[in-house]
Amino acid sequence: APGPGRDGIPPRPRPSARRGPKGASLVNAPDRRGLPARVWGATWRIIGFALLVAAFGIVGSFPARALPEGEIPWVGTAVSLAAALAASWVMMVGVERRPFGAVGLAPSRVAIRELVVGTGIGAGLLALAVILQALTRHVGWIPDAGTPGGYLRFAAWTLAFFALAAALEEVLFRGYPFQVLVRAVGAWPAMLLSALLFAAVHAGNPNVRPLGLANICLAGVLLSVAYLRTRSLWFATAIHLGWNWTMSTLLDLPVSGLDWDTPLYTGVETGPDWWTGGAFGPEAGVTGALVLAAGTAWLLRTGRLVVASEVLALRPLVDDPPAEAPPDGPSSGEAPSARGDG
After folding, report:
1. Element (H, E) at 161
2. Burial class (CB in 10 A: 0-12, 13-18, 19+), 148
3. CA-to-CA distance for 287 and 125, rounded, in angstroms?
4. What span, in angstroms and rounded, lies between the C-alpha atoms of 185 and 5?
5. In which element (H, E) is residue 275 found?
6. pLDDT tens column, 289-318
7. What does the pLDDT read at residue 131?
8. What distance in Å separates the CA atoms of residue 141 and residue 104, rounded to the nearest whole number?
9. pLDDT at 260
10. Which regions of the chain are under pLDDT 50?
């Protein structure tokens, strides 16, 4: 694989490269327009994306009404995800003039590994938060009704649902709108704005707590870093899935205030709410804040993350100027220069 360039940014390899470069800088977009032009360009794109999501969602809701919703709201989640993906496709192909996979969903050779490793990272971070509670004897489990077969069915069903839900939130909050915002204002301002919005949409959840919203904001930063270091929504989605599914199904603890009744056993948090998160779940406790901060720091510094060469060849939005930008950036085949916020 090609080594780092003069600015420490690996040059874009050809699709045939056998190994991808290490994890990328947070942002490397050579958009040299003035700030007002960049902000305006991002604004109308985000508005257009939102209108398309709403339109596709309305269209998809009509046939979805004939499907049974069940106790787990998978139909509405699936329709919303389909609408968000369709809107992303229109904006990527029609506006940005690049393949849909460039949004972070390319079928690269490392996608499966990103899904597996990301799920493990999300599960491990959540488990670490609960281990901290267990060490202080502030969490435990008691027997509950159920059968092994019922447990396996529940685990499979919730895994599918949380995969859909995580994918939906990642496409909305780390997908196209976030990426054009990164290109316009830089990585850290975009991450903060996106994370604040991510927390705001959870403000109406049951048993919400200020620390819980702060931790969800921190989780938004963590997931943004996960995307930016890999240019992969597969990786960010997997981390999100591993955290939520482990919390809800394997440990039977509330997820952002929503309780899931796992068969066979019930998780019980007995410590102070500021430590355990109480009825909102570990996301509202100091233990959650500690592991989210540690996970974010690790993602920022680790050299183990890989960006697939196939992904870079598709021209991710955070690495290339918008279609209407003047062609004053680096010539084809040269490494773009860093903007200083990665």
Report:
1. helix 148-173
2. exposed
3. 10
4. 24
5. helix 273-276
6. 999 999 999 999 999 998 888 899 999 999
7. 96
8. 39
9. 85
10. 1-20, 325-342
| Widest Cα–Cα separation across the chain | 66
Q: What is the DSSP string of 3-24?
A: ---TTS-PPPPPTT-SS--BSP
Strands (E), 75-202: 139-143
Provide the 3-class DSSP secondary structure of residue 66: coil
Whether residue 9 contacts residue 336, with contact meaning beta carbons closer than 8 Å, is answered with yes
Instruction: Give residue 21's pLDDT.
Output: 55
Q: What are phi and psi of 99, to 5 degrees?
A: -65, 150
In one-letter notation, the amino acid at residue 37 is A
Backbone angles phi, psi at 176, to 5 degrees: -55, -50
Nearest to 2 by CA among 231, 340, 301, 309: 309
* CA distances, 339 to each of 178, 186, 193, 251, 309 (Å): 17, 8, 19, 43, 21
E strand spans, 99-212: 139-143
Quick check: 6 and 335 in contact, CB under 8 A?
yes
- Burial code of 44-81, b = ≥16 C-beta within 10 A, e = fewer? ebbebbeebbeebbeebeeebeeeeeeebebbbbbbbb
Task: Of 18, 24, 10, 7, give the one whose Cα is nearest residue 231.
Answer: 24
Q: How many CB atoms lie within 10 A of CB 115?
A: 19
pLDDT tens across 219-242, in order? Answer: 999 999 999 999 999 999 999 999
What residues have CB less than 8 Å from 97, skipping those under 6 apart?
A: 323
Under the phi-then-psi rule, with left for phi > 0, alpha for psi from -120 to 50, and beta for the rest, what region is 98? beta
For residues 109 and 310, is the Cβ–Cβ distance under 8 A?
Answer: yes
Structure confidence at residue 309 (pLDDT) = 87
Q: For position 197, what pLDDT does the model report?
A: 97
Residue whose token pair is 């240019």: 231
